[in-house]
From TrEMBL:
Name of this protein: ABC transporter permease
Gene3D superfamilies with a match to the protein in the record: abc type-2 transporter like domain
Domain of life: Bacteria
InterPro entries according to UniProt: ABC-2_transporter_component, ABC2_TM, ABC2_TM_bact-type
PROSITE patterns: ABC_TM2 (PS51012)
Residues of the ABC transmembrane type-2 domain: 146-372
Subcellular compartments: Cell membrane
């Protein structure tokens, strides 16, 4: 323990002595957590729509008003020529075209039906799909409003009617930031801990101080613990500031579940993550090599860890890759505890998996660290 104490004192002095490193560790993640959730939003708004109105009737104007008042669409062009509207799509000034045929109101009243034509710019598949779905919902709602105006409800309605009442669990107001902030916080903690610890041993190699350490009676596990514990403490601190200060006072996120359980899982996750980073640093000979390898894994963690897309919708091969990385489990656990209030019985499988990651990665790091005397 005395040897480990001296090693930890040395590591903390090195970290806090580097004035350029401190803002990267403590300031940058908080600034990113303040900015990224504001941009990471799957709700598509400000969709530009061109409307070709051949009817110019009261009903067509009501439909246009309903579309523009929805908050999802902006009227980019209004006219009577489809070719002119199509040019707006070619110039990337419009995303959808709604064509209202001539006699729209007349046919709707006399024949009780009419058709509308919708053309969608599908270069951006996500925006096209959501924009078309929004427009379809608005037209359906408008159609229902018209039917209610025409129909005279019977005094005694004998027709069976099914009533549907919906309830939003765990995120009552469908606030997308409640879903994104915990996941982004996990990625930020992962980036800081993995980058800094991966560079740690490599820096010792480049400076030459590792040779002095190698001729001392320090055990390999003591050396690894001395490198792991400081960044474990820093990771815990960054997560605490992000969740308890930024998450609560900026985004209004109050964890529903047990903080003790959450921090217990965080502690094991950081041990596993830092073990992977230290394993990378035992292979790399320069800081550039270590950063390149760490960046490679961080990109996989971000894109395949379930932060933006559900891993259940991935192809089979991608699903198994996602299940083989620690970030996937921690993002899921954070959301389960913070939003759902899950208990230990709900995440005990995740605990077993993460303990396995921690033992495997740190065991490999200790085994691969070459200490010569």
């Amino acid at each position: 323990m005395r040897t480990l104490k001296f090693l930890l004192r040395k590591e903390f002095k090195q970290i806090f002595r580097n004035k350029a490193l401190l803002p990267l560790i403590f300031v940058v993640p908080i600034v990113q957590l303040l900015i990224l959730p504001l941009a990471a939003d799957y709700e598509v708004k400000n969709i530009n729509i061109s409307i070709v109105d051949h009817d110019h009737s009261t009903y067509s104007q009501q439909l246009i008003s309903k579309i523009t008042a929805s908050g999802y669409f902006q009227l980019a062009d209004y006219g009577t020529s489809f070719n002119q509207a199509f040019q707006q799509i070619e110039k990337d000034k419009s995303d959808l075209i709604l064509e209202i045929p001539q006699g729209f109101e007349k046919n709707l009243v006399s024949e009780n039906s009419e058709k509308l034509f919708v053309a969608v710019n599908a270069i951006n598949g996500v925006k096209a799909g959501l924009g078309g779905a929004y427009l379809n919902q608005i037209i359906t709602a408008y159609n229902n409003d018209i039917r209610l105006q025409w129909s005279q409800p019977d005094k005694f309605n004998t027709t069976p009617v099914i009533s549907i009442a919906s309830s939003n669990w765990f995120n009552k107001f469908l606030n997308y930031r409640f879903f994104m902030v915990p996941g982004i916080l996990v990625v930020l903690v992962t980036m800081v801990a993995s980058y800094m610890s991966a560079l740690n041993i490599v820096k010792e190699k480049e400076v030459g101080t590792i040779e002095q350490i190698n001729v001392t009676p320090i055990k390999k596990y003591q050396f690894i613990l001395g490198k792991l514990i400081p960044f474990w403490v820093i990771g815990m601190f960054i997560f605490s500031v992000g969740l308890l200060i930024v998450g609560r006072f900026v985004y209004g996120i109050v964890p529903v579940g047990s903080l003790l359980l959450l921090y217990g899982y965080l502690a094991i996750y950081l041990i596993a993550l830092l073990g992977m980073s230290l394993l990378i640093s035992t292979f790399a000979e320069t800081q550039q090599q270590a950063m390149s390898v760490a960046f490679f894994f961080i990109m996989i963690f971000m894109l395949m860890g379930g932060l933006f897309t559900s891993i259940d919708s991935m192809p089979t091969w991608a699903y198994y890759i996602a299940k083989s990385i620690p970030v996937t489990y921690f993002i899921e656990v954070v959301r389960m505890i913070i939003l759902k209030g899950s208990g230990f019985a709900d995440i005990k499988y995740h605990f077993v998996i993460m303990i396995g990651f921690a033992v495997l990665l740190n065991g490999l790091a200790i085994w691969n660290y070459k200490k010569t005397s």
